[in-house]
Amino acid sequence: MEGGSVNELNGNSIHSKEDSNADEAFDTTIEELCKNLCELQSSTNQSPSRQSFGSYGDESKIDSDLQHLALGETRDFDITTEDEGEEDQLEKPQEFDMVRPGTGSTSRKSSSSAEAMPKDTEKQVGKKNANRSSLGLGGTGTTRKKKAGTKLQNGNEEQPSTENVELARFLLNQARNLVSSGDNINKALELSLRAAKLFEASADNGKPCLEWIMCLHVTAAIHCKLKEYKEAIPVLQRSVEIPVVEQGEEHALAKFAGLMQLGDTYAMVGQLENAVSCYTEGLQIQKKVLGENDPRVGETCRYLAEALVQALRFDEAQEVCETALSIHRENGLPASISEAADRRLMGLICETKGDHENALEHLVLASMAMAANGQESEVAFVDTSIGDSYLSLSRYDEAICAYQKSLTALKTAKGENHPAVGSVYIRLADLYNRTGKVREAKSYCENALRIYESHNLEISPEEIASGLTDISVICESMNEVEQAITLLQKALKIYADSPGQKIMIAGIEAQMGVLYYMMGQYIESYNTFKSAVSKLRATGKKQSTFFGIALNQMGLACIQLDALEEAVELFEEAKCILEQECSPYHPETLGVYSNLAGAYDAIGRLDDAIALLGHVVGVREEKLGTANSGTEDEKKRLVQLLKESGKVSRRKAKSLKTLIDSELMTSSALR
């Protein structure tokens, strides 16, 4: 578990906020955003359309007129002049309440339930909760009513701004109704786009309009509902450009909402670094408005920490999560739900970093707090994580107890065929396989496979793919390599190159590359590694330990295919990355040095090979001692190189067999 394997990093989700799928999340986002937009109308607004917009009563005169325009018809407006002669009225300032994603007045969940930790977060990496509107809205910004029929200097009559705003509100309400009914999402998008243009046109001299901003949020949510994530991104980018933070709290909080929604959308297309940047900027705005120690800031800190985990930035994730924990301890009662959620995340971060003792401590405290707060269903998931920590510490009996306790609770609460039950089966299979009880391991694998291949509509495709991937790792360890590849191919087919799952897909392909290499199918190994490396480059993972290891493995495949120059390039890139990410003395880095030394020798760069191998021998003697078998082997290789200096051309073929670190050909970090 130390360092985190590909399977562990890509199969365990920290970032899912709940089990609902993305479509449901966007449905709710649209509902809540539109609800907020309705509330933007001032309570002092006495226009005839006010009643029908906020209720389901009879249509007003203006609503009837607006409906014709919404359907693309033209009709003369019969605007009464009751307001003529009245004093211009200032509408009440908008009131915001900035909260973390998923809570507060705009959330689909109550504040108490929103604070609960996600279900089985450690087994659902690729999933994202997109409901982060996070903006509670009261009245509107300061706006003056304009009298109908104002004359311009050229004698033409100006289109009343009030009519544009009323029409925009109506169009957006119609869009909401279409989304809610599911009748015509494309029409809903068309209406919301028209509404956005009207709000923009109604803005005085391009001044920021809060209703316009919220309309853009809704439009982007509808794009996402249609899985048009790339189209949603520029809309949200525009929405965060409009607010002027210096103009007050309302604009600052509107920008916060846009940044969080933009971060979610980046995450949906696999651009995790951009997502983290958005969340970080949103957090800074929230801190400025609410203060450093507001509980809602703590919620957003945890959210950012989850995103950092998914981006494999574990040190930063731990630091941000510690901040969240500190805030919640200061503001809440001991063992609060928020503190339990923070500790659960902290436990998973520590476990991934190999700090199993601290992970166990955080998880046990989280389990106790959740039990004290009546969250029994969540306790079962935490017990699974506690079992993971015991397993990592080789405390097998305690791990079995934790897993069995979790299994019993999950079967009772979720049913025999729930994916969470399958997840515990996989863990038990892994445990029994490690302890040499192969028959029990195979039995639990079969139970898990039965769940994931049951065609249960309640199991998401991502959960199925993750389960198949985990089972393949156990099959590999039991030398059932062909079965492992078959399962990985099924998982790969499920993801179908989804843009939001590129890291997951790259991890699966890397595993397949290792298995193909073990089977002697070097061309297939090279091709799958090449595909994995390409995806990792596209997602910005060019400076991660996993990327360095994948490059090393691809280089080994090149050696077997006599592509020596390409192998050298891959080893050199892997060397630079691992030196930075792990240090020059880390075992993974030393393994790459050994492989690169062999490749240098094979292409005639003997001096470079001797220098690298000398470094490896020196470090291993210092760390492992001269009596260590690995150190002795490296020393023999170095002595051989020194003796045969100047004879490289006659021993090139020999170097390919003897100077490659065979231990890294099946590096555990790619399993």
TrEMBL record:
This is Nephrocystin-3. Residues 41-54, 153-162 have a biased composition (Polar residues). PANTHER family: PROTEIN KINESIN LIGHT CHAIN-RELATED 3. Residues 1-24, 41-162 are annotated as: Disordered. Residues 102-113 have a biased composition (Low complexity). Pfam families: TPR_10, TPR_12, TPR_MalT. Residues 79-89 have a biased composition (Acidic residues). Residues 308-510 form the MalT-like TPR region domain. InterPro entries: TPR-like_helical_dom_sf, TPR_MalT, TPR_rpt.
